[in-house]
Amino acid sequence: MKRLPFLIFVLLTAGGILPAGQDKGPSIAFDSIAKNFGKATEGETLRHVFKFTNKGSAPLEVISVNASCGCTSTLLSSQKIAPGQSGQLEVTIATEGLNTPEINKTVSITSNDPRQPQVILSLTAELVPEFVISEPSVYFGTNPRGKEVSKEILVTIPPDKAIELVSAISTDENVTVRLEPVAGSSGKKVKVIAVQKPTAPEGYHFGNLVIKTTSKLRPELKISVRGIVVKGS
């Protein structure tokens, strides 16, 4: 009779039944599969570490890690995780140039876990711009040579941001640019005034308006500029 419990244990083990809490074969288990950063400033780099454990009885192998966007990079601690051991995946999101009020990115993890071969991790945030630019570019249109054409773009700085616009230059030699603070805005609203020179030669011209700022996240703002000059009447 004393040998009966031992025989039952041998039969259960041979039949593939494992102790409670441990799966047969590799088994990936994440502490969390979602991260909400809350509010983030545009230009900020967001980082989060997802931790996972191999709760199975065989080595876990991470086959691939794929991000949904080129702005998202990943760093895996190890591709192979022994039973009972843990690993981590660091995810980094570069928010500069993301012209959207919300960030919704995913990272897919493919492993040799037979029950869960793919896990989708999600990362979200509300993106708050340091500068609100009324137009992403300046287009003068088609104009005859000898005509001066002026365009304005308004840059607004949120009240809680202690940053300023310092200077502006044009990489297009046919365009001049200047900054003009809006009266009564305490420097929080600034007009960017671009002027196509009357001496601009016939043809297509293009470049950027480069605005220097005191921001550490966005020390430069670039606004594309272009136009077409045709023969005057």
Short description:
The chain is mainly beta and 233 residues long.
The proportion of residues forming helix, as a percent range, comes to under 10%
Any idea how many domains? 2
**Which structural category fits the helices and strands?**
mainly beta
Question: In angstroms, what separates the terminal alpha carbons?
Answer: 113 Å
- CATH top level label of the largest domain: Mainly Beta
Q: What's the CATH superfamily of the largest domain, by name?
A: Immunoglobulins
Chain-averaged pLDDT? 90
Please tell me what the overall shape is: elongated
- Radius of gyration over C-alpha positions, nearest whole angstrom: 29 Å
CATH topology of the largest domain: Immunoglobulin-like
Number of strands: 17
Reported CATH architecture of the largest domain? Sandwich
SS summary, helix count: 1
Low-confidence stretches: 6-18
The SSE string, one letter per element, is: HEEEEEEEEEEEEEEEEE
> Which assembly state applies to the chains in this document?
single chain
Strand content: over 45%
Order of strands across the widest beta sheet?
2-9-8-4-6
Question: Can you summarize the main beta sheet?
Answer: 5 strands, mixed
